[in-house]
Amino acid sequence: MTLGILVMHWDDRKGVELLGQFPQNTVLPEKTLMQIYSQHEFTSEAGMVSIMAGSQNLASYYTGVDKAIYVVLLLDLEEDADSFEEGLLETSREIVANIATNTLKEVLPLLFQRLSVFPGMSEEQRLSVLFGSEMKRIIIKRLQNESMIIKSELRIWLKEEYKDSFVDLDSVLESLVKAQIVKLSSVKGLSSDVLFLNQDLMVLRRPPVKLYKDPVDHHLPESLKDIYTTEVRNFFLSYKPSEEDNLEIVEKVMLDPQTYEVLKLLREALVTKNDIEKLRKKGVSDIEQALKALWATKMIQVFRDNAGTEYYCLVSDFFIHQFFPKYNLDSIRKQSIYKVQSPNALTKALDLMRREYMMLEKAKKKKKPKVSA
């Protein structure tokens, strides 16, 4: 169980300045705070360190000398600090932004709640974290257009884009490589490594197919069947995917632990309020807020049967998935024709695409069920 979070700043004259904590009674001895400072000072670079200070298990992220912010997560002794690294990076970026707008106190409880469940997130939640990161999104967008970026050029570009924030490029790239979105490789003739697009992200709403095909089998009264299916059809007749819409769902639903638990239930059945109330046993304490979030994002509708019983129904679901970017071949071909990229880099891009495609095809064949004679 994750115990708490501290946000501090180091001032050369004043020493440690505590900027925020949650829960409010979260404290660490000054000796431990100095130990955290010393650990980061040893490397002097942005990044995470894990520390055992007496009986305390800590994960600390340092934003670098420009901001000099330390985000310290207090963990249970049995928790693996390294499993929080990616979550700490994204949380630290949000914390820095909220310090600048004097809103840290208001958002810290939610940020802590998200971070505390990070190691146990589902694959779609992990991809939602990735998509929700503005820096990672703009890197992916550049790769969608250019297929490859020289790392040294990317570092300069990002520092220009994020003058008021901090750029921990190595941690960002490590996350993208781990997710298999990018490949990082050396290229003959280039002094810096090159980023290549390996897989892309598809992000959009989709109909709740199982529920739509047979709503009655998923606990909806027969009298509401046609009303429900009509509502789903009407929604998707006017639906247009947009990044703004996707980000709203990521923020309010996918990365809110309690709302996500409600979504998981609604994916399985068309339920009454009493059914949703049972989620309190799973730690969903604010059910009303979760339902408000699903309503605000237009993911649910509420229908009432003849007896006055209300049914909470999913009318649009969320889909986030990785896919092989075949379109990248056209981008590489154009760069070759107009000679805007190193021939060695283009050859490497094609080779990496070939390898990725063969690996995906091999994985597909393994998944196919064997047909007995």
Structural class: alpha+beta
CATH superfamily of the largest domain: Winged helix-like DNA-binding domain superfamily/Winged helix DNA-binding domain
- Could you say how many structural domains there are in total? 3
The CATH architecture of the largest domain comes to Orthogonal Bundle
- Helical percentage: 40-55%
**Beta-strand fraction estimate:** 15-25%
Across the major sheet, the strand order is 2-1-5-4-3
For the record, the CATH class of the largest domain is: Mainly Alpha
What is the N-to-C order of secondary-structure elements (H for helix, E for strand)? EEHEEEHHHHEHHEEEHHHHEHHEEEHH
Could you describe the largest sheet, including whether it forms a barrel?
5 strands, antiparallel
Residue windows where pLDDT falls under 50 for at least 5 positions: none
Short description:
This protein is of the alpha+beta class and 373 residues long. Helix content is 48%, strand content 20%.
Per-chain topology:
Blueprint: E1 4-11, E2 15-22, H1 30-43, E3 47-53, E4 56-62, E5 69-75, H2 85-100, H3 104-116, H4 123-132, H5 134-146, E6 148-150, H6 151-161, H7 169-178, E7 182-185, E8 194-197, E9 200-206, H8 209-213, H9 225-237, H10 243-254, H11 257-268, E10 271-272, H12 273-277, H13 287-296, E11 300-304, E12 310-314, E13 317-323, H14 328-337, H15 343-367
Antiparallel strand pairs: 1-2, 1-5, 3-4, 4-5, 6-8, 7-8, 9-13, 10-12, 11-12
Helix pairs in contact: 2-3, 4-10, 11-13, 14-15
Characterise this structure.
The chain is α+β, with helices and mostly antiparallel strands and 373 residues long. It folds into three domains: 4-120, Longin domain (Beta-Lactamase), CATH 3.30.450; 128-199 and 326-364, Orthogonal Bundle (Arc Repressor Mutant, subunit A), CATH 1.10.10; 202-320, Arc Repressor Mutant, subunit A (Orthogonal Bundle). It has 15 helices and 13 strands. The strands form four sheets. Strands 2-1-5-4-3 form a five-stranded antiparallel β-sheet, with helices on both faces. Strands 6-8-7 form a three-stranded antiparallel β-sheet, with helices on both faces. Strand 4 and strand 5 form a beta hairpin. The longest helix has 25 residues, at 343-367. The N and C termini lie far apart (52 Å).
